[in-house]
Amino acid sequence: VQLQESGGDSVQAGGSLTLSCAASGNTLSSYSMGWFRQAPGTEREGVALISSGGGTKRHADSVKGRFTISRDNAKNMLYLLMDTLKPEDTAIYYCAATRNSWYSVSLHPHDFNIWGQGTQVTVSS
Fold first, then answer.
1. CA distances from 11 to 8, 49, 58, 89 (A)
2. Confidence class of residue 26 from pLDDT cuts 50, 70 and 90?
3. Residue 79 and residue 21: Cα distance in Å, rounded?
4. Distance CA 80, CA 71 (A)
5. What percentage of the chain has pLDDT greater than the value 90?
6. β pairing state of 10-12 and 119-124
7. Are 63 and 124 in contact (CB under 8 A)?
8. Given a cut of 90, is residue 8 above it in pLDDT?
9. Would you call 88 helix, strand, or coil by DSSP?
10. In angstroms, rounded to a whole number, what is the distance separating the alpha carbons of residues 118 and 8?
11. How confident is residue 95, by pLDDT bands cut at 50, 70 and 90?
């Protein structure tokens, strides 16, 4: 499966964005999916993950209550709704996939082996 993110933009603090991740080459319904981000000079960090069927979701404490991960397997799409954005949310955001079940993966990048190219999100104060 190949992944392509879109929806990144420059917004002001307090604003909202929805990121999308389109999959091609294979159906997404067999994969657990995640969103990660990487700011300049920092390590890539997990933002949220979702089970293959969409019934289980986990969000990092730093985004809990503000970000929501979702998926539409019929459309082969993954989404990240981001509300109440803060300057510290500025980063390149990546979607990722793994065939491992959600209960065996964490919000650590090494648990995912398929990655998109990333989309830039910039939040200004």
1. 9, 24, 25, 11
2. confident
3. 6
4. 9
5. 92
6. parallel
7. no
8. yes
9. helix
10. 9
11. very high
Beta bridge partners of 69: 80
Tokens of 104: 């065996």
What torsion do the CA atoms of 63, 94, 108, 97 make, to the nearest 10 degrees? 120
CB atoms near residue 41 (< 10 Å): 5
Reference 8, options 92, 83, 72; nearest CA is: 92
Go through the chain and tell me how many residues it has.
125
Residue carrying structure tokens 């404490």 = 61
Mode of pairing for the β-strands spanning 119-124 and 91-98: antiparallel
22, two tokens: 């389109």
- Tell me the pLDDT tens digit for each residue of 30-86: 999 999 999 999 999 999 999 999 999 999 999 999 999 999 999 999 999 999 999
Alpha carbons 84 and 78: distance in angstroms, whole number? 20
> Is residue 97 a contact partner of residue 4, using CB atoms and an 8 Å limit?
no
Q: Which residue has the tokens 């510290």?
A: 88
Return the residue matching tokens 């969000």. 59
**Cβ distance 28 to 78 under 8 Å?**
yes
